[in-house]
Design brief:
Elements lengths: L2 H7 L2 H4 L12 H7 L8 E8 L19 E2 L6 E3 L7 H9 E4 L2 E4 L1 H12 L8 H4 L2 E5 L15 E2 L9 H4 L8 E5 L28
Parallel strand pairs: 1-8
Antiparallel strand pairs: 1-2, 1-3, 4-5, 6-7, 6-8
């Protein structure tokens, strides 16, 4: 073999440069799954408020064992949110529905809320659909455990649900978002079950709780 040709074949495997390969990029969904869980300040805890039920109406031999309403303990479900972009209106989505294999289904939290709302009285005669609605509220004091009996949540106006969650819950580690069934409010958003005598529309109702 001529020397010129020998130089083409001798040790050629050692002379071939390694091909340059672009760095491996994992698919987006894998990256998302590998992310650290959201810190506590990005998770919202919820409570439920219902007006206390008089002991005379409690269906229990021992009133202490009956669910008498009031402000509930923190619910076991926490809702992740982005303080810089999540509004109260958008927060209703993870509260109510979850994507399961491409289909939207009610969350277990929302199913339980509906079960509670179905059992509540409807003293202001809301239509069936409206009576199964709910509103958001915040507790008027920092420590709800020390609140005086009869304290009720401050209801967030419906038109303010386009506000960021962070506006109403600046510190989710110390404040909770309160879910208030619509039946617990009068038509003017006052947290009361009581109507004044002759006040069929609830316009002059006063909160006596």
């Amino acid at each position: 073999m001529p020397d010129g040709n020998r130089s083409l074949y001798a040790g050629h495997a050692d002379d071939i440069p390694e091909p340059e390969r672009p760095p491996y990029e994992a698919p987006l969904d894998i990256l998302k799954l590998s992310e650290e869980p959201a810190p506590d300040e990005h998770r919202l805890t919820l409570r439920l408020f219902r007006h206390p039920l008089p002991c005379s109406e409690a269906h229990s031999y021992i009133a202490g064992y009956s669910d008498l309403g009031g402000l509930s303990p923190r619910l076991p479900t926490v809702i992740p949110y982005a303080p810089e972009r999540t509004t109260l209106a958008r927060l209703r989505i993870p509260i109510e529905v979850v994507n399961v294999d491409g289909m939207l289904r009610r969350t277990s939290l929302f199913q339980e809320l509906l079960a509670v709302m179905v059992e509540l009285k409807n003293p202001h005669d809301y239509p069936s659909a409206a009576s199964l609605g709910y509103r958001f509220g915040v507790w008027p004091e920092d420590d709800c455990e020390k609140s005086a009996p009869g304290t009720v949540p401050t209801i967030i106006p419906k038109e303010d649900e386009d506000d960021l969650v962070a506006k109403w819950i600046p510190d989710p580690l110390t404040r909770d978002l309160i879910i208030v069934p619509q039946t617990q409010l009068d038509p003017e958003d006052r947290c009361t079950l009581v109507r004044c005598a002759g006040d069929e529309d609830g316009k002059r109702s006063l909160d006596v709780f």
